[in-house]
What we know:
Blueprint: H1 2-30, H2 33-41, H3 55-63, H4 67-79, H5 83-101, H6 109-139, H7 146-184
Helix pairs in contact: 1-4, 1-5, 1-7, 2-4, 4-6, 5-6, 5-7, 6-7
Amino acid sequence: MGKIIADIFLLLALPLVSFVGGAWIMAEMSNHQLVTRRLLETGQKPLNQRLGYGLAEVQRCWGALNKDAILAERRFLELDLVFPFVYGGAFVTSLLIAWALLSRPFNPLWFMAPVVITILADWVENLTQLNQIKRYLISGETGLDANWIRVASVATTVKWLFSSVITIFLLTLAGLIIARVFKSV
């Protein structure tokens, strides 16, 4: 029973630690506190934490940042191209542990597909925002493209939706493992 509890702890802690730790490392490496501090002062959330945004929201968000903060945001987005491998790998590892503990009751593609969709959505979000930041640095607000911002917004929403689905699925599998352990006791 102790091994099962350790396994459940591992499969729940792995994605949490990778997500929190990875986000902290990216923030430190990019000097992202310049962005968060300024956005807090203006009562705004970063674009990657919103469920939907448009041209006006991007203009307000990036317009509130000075050049150093915009460069920090760009660096953060560049680092965030690697981050999906970190949290995606942690999710897949945890889901594989749960799958094995439940004696492989279904095809692993059922949990791999949402992880892949989340990673792809995160990349689309980041690459699109990086392109728009480049245009913003060159031409200011007039360089922003509403259609590409809409693409980034949809990708952000898809990323959050599918990461939520994965988290709920992982918690459900952990619950099934716990129920199986108590059923056998």
